[in-house]
Amino acid sequence: MTLAQNPGLQTSRRSLVRLAALTGAATVATGVSANFVAAQAQTALSLFPEDYHYPTVTGPSLALWGSSSFDGAHADQGVPQGYNASLAHLLRDYLGIPVLEFGRGGDTSTMIAARRGVGARTYQLVFPQDKIPATGSVPVTLAEGSQVAWGPSAQVPGLVGDVPGVLTAGDAEGSYSFTRTLDGAEVYAPASSPASWFHSYQEMVSRACYHVIQIGRNNLDEFEQIKEDTQLSYDLAPERTLVMGHFRGQWDARDSAMAKQVDAYNAWAKGVYGDRFVNPELFMRETTQEAWLRYGALSGSGVWASDEDRAAYDEGKIPPSFYAADGFHLNGWGYVALAQQLYYRTTHLGWFEAK
């Protein structure tokens, strides 16, 4: 995507450069990458709350975009106490590079695409009296042209012009609040103009990264929507992006609605992205039976040792040994399997040197 295709990004890039210059965080010069300037500005100024502090990217790095599976949900289940089995932590260890974790439990495909920086999914905000207050929070809505479905999990760091803040879903459907994280002057931001557009800080700090996207697990029934959001997100960096597919729940039968939705998406993505697609269900069903993995990274998991695991395989399912107690998310061993899959695929593509 070029600046001409999304002119609102120009404002955010210039804003970050100015913020960095004002704080002395970085020397602004031609060729300094926007994500580097953004990270340095954040370090000097603490633009966002601690939950949104990300590693400074100065070399090979990986950004994970998705919902709860990329947010470490239930990663403490199944594994020994104290073992950090979140996908981001495992990949940092396997690859020896910074990994930026942009998972947000509950997010749907348009919400993930908006955080990823897809121009067609930009949050176009409407401020009361078209003004961003000098401090604190303000209720906002989305302009009619916005194409981001509302969801209660929305919580995104970003900038409106020069103003950093966090956009958060309100209690009522369609409502949001924008909370400034840096006090300053009141700012005029007329609705339906680029001056009121909210730009994802996560996208800004990850522009030099390689990316893994898993989009649509929370709205699998919207097949055309998740295909479009996947493609738009992929197109931002097609040479540096992997698409991860989906897996059914533990108790979903082969002919269940979810199983059919998962199969349809995975088949579509495989056909479109080829070796830039990874199928987690296939990997956890088949590859984890191989001795090098079962008795290697998965040693201690007990996977495939029980009658329940074997019965699940015969039914076309992932072994129960990889599921959390809710039967929908993975446990720690499931994340180990996913991390192994991503480790081998990214190194196979030559993105990072194998450790």
Q: Can you walk me through this structure?
A:
By secondary structure, the protein is an alpha/beta fold. The protein contains 11 helices and 13 strands. The protein has helices at residues 8-23, 34-45, 87-95, 109-116, 201-205, 223-235, 257-273, 280-285, 291-294, 307-314, 332-348, and strands at residues 62-66, 99-103, 123-126, 131-132, 137-142, 155-160, 163-169, 176-180, 187-188, 197-200, 210-213, 241-244, 277-278. Helix 3 (87-95) links the parallel strand 1 (62-66) and strand 2 (99-103). It starts with 7 loop residues before the first helix and ends in a 7-residue tail after the last helix.
Arrangement of strands in the largest sheet? 3-5-8-7-6-10
Order of helices and strands: HHEHEHEEEEEEEEHEHEHEHHHH
Main sheet specs? 6 strands, antiparallel, barrel
Put simply, the count of helices is 11
Q: What structural class is derived from the secondary structure elements?
A: alpha/beta
Averaging pLDDT over every residue, what do you get? 88
Shape: globular
Gap between N and C termini, in Å? 33 Å
What low-confidence regions span 5 or more consecutive residues with pLDDT below 50?
1-45
- Count the strands? 13
Strand content: 15-25%
Computed CA radius of gyration, to the nearest angstrom: 21 Å
Instruction: Please give the share of residues in helix.
Output: 25-40%
